[in-house]
Design a protein that fits this description.
The chain contains seven helices and ten strands. It is α/β, with parallel strands linked by helices and 236 residues long. Helix 5 runs parallel beside helix 6. The structure holds adenosine-5'-diphosphate and magnesium ion.
């Protein structure tokens, strides 16, 4: 056993569309240990979302090796990948991705309903706990359209943490928010990290990036820098 949560070795991702080959990622070597808050930074199109999809088991690499919690997940079956993803990984997206005809509580509960080991009672407790942490309990019976963008993203974060995942993956989580709501979301991620969450966040905003304890910079599908940030250097 190591304390490594994520171990990527020589990962490469090539997309083939029509006659075009896009080398989205090359020679990616990256380890993430439990409790880290890693920011993935770099210009648009450099491969950030592709990397997050690979880490989140939403997609598979063309070549290379991926170990998640010391298990080789490079070539496991699709249903096993989905099972690990559902239990171990919480996703937060730029566009919130809430389901409009489900209430706030139903949205947060949805990923838990695919886990047979969770009773209805446990699901309800975990939903209440997550909504409480995000100060959204009073909106449990509302629908997404009745909420502001900032509130919708808080619901999406509640959904991501409700299942007690090993890692939270956030792709430009503040991209659709005004600066005040963006700050609030960054504060929430800080506080989740302080409470022990492991976070990997993609952003092209250097200010958000400096909230993390480590910044991995990508350029043209390759890691070009990987720096730990001391408390003194962090953005307030
Ligand atoms: N599903 C896909 N099919 C083909 N090309 C893709 C696909 N997803 C991403 N790409 C290409 O891979 C490169 C990296 O994209 P992406 O990871 O989305 O970058 P970023 O998130 O940093 O903006 C881009 O050139 C993009 O066009
Ligand atoms: Mg992207």
């Amino acid at each position: 056993m190591t304390d490594h949560l994520i171990q990527l070795k020589d990962l490469k991702k090539v997309f083939y569309t029509d006659e075009i080959e896009t080398h989205a990622l090359s020679e990616i070597n990256l380890d993430i240990v439990s409790g880290e808050y890693v920011s993935i930074a770099g210009p648009s199109g450099c491969g950030k979302s592709t990397l997050l999809s690979l880490i989140g088991l939403l997609d598979v690499a063309s070549t290379g090796n991926y170990r998640f919690k010391d298990q080789d997940v490079s070539a496991i079956a699709r249903n096993e990948r989905a099972r690990i993803r559902n239990r171990e990984i919480g996703f937060i997206f730029q566009s919130f991705n809430l389901i409009s005809d489900l209430t706030v509580a139903e949205n947060v509960e949805l990923p838990l309903t695919y886990r047979n080991e969770l009773t209805k009672l446990v699901r309800k407790q975990w939903v209440d706990e997550a909504l409480g942490k995000l100060n959204m309990s009073h909106r449990a019976r509302h629908f997404p359209s009745q909420l502001s963008g900032g509130q919708q993203q808080r619901v999406a974060i509640a959904r991501a943490i409700a299942g007690k995942p090993s890692i939270l993956l956030a792709d430009e989580p503040t991209g659709n928010l005004d600066s005040r709501n963006a700050e609030a979301v960054m504060d929430i991620l800080d506080s989740l990290h302080e409470q022990g969450a492991t976070i990997c966040m993609v952003t092209h905003d250097p200010r958000s990036s400096r909230r993390a304890s480590r910044v991995v910079e990508i350029f043209d599908g390759r890691i070009v820098a990987d720096n730990r940030i001391s408390a003194g250097e962090k953005a307030a």
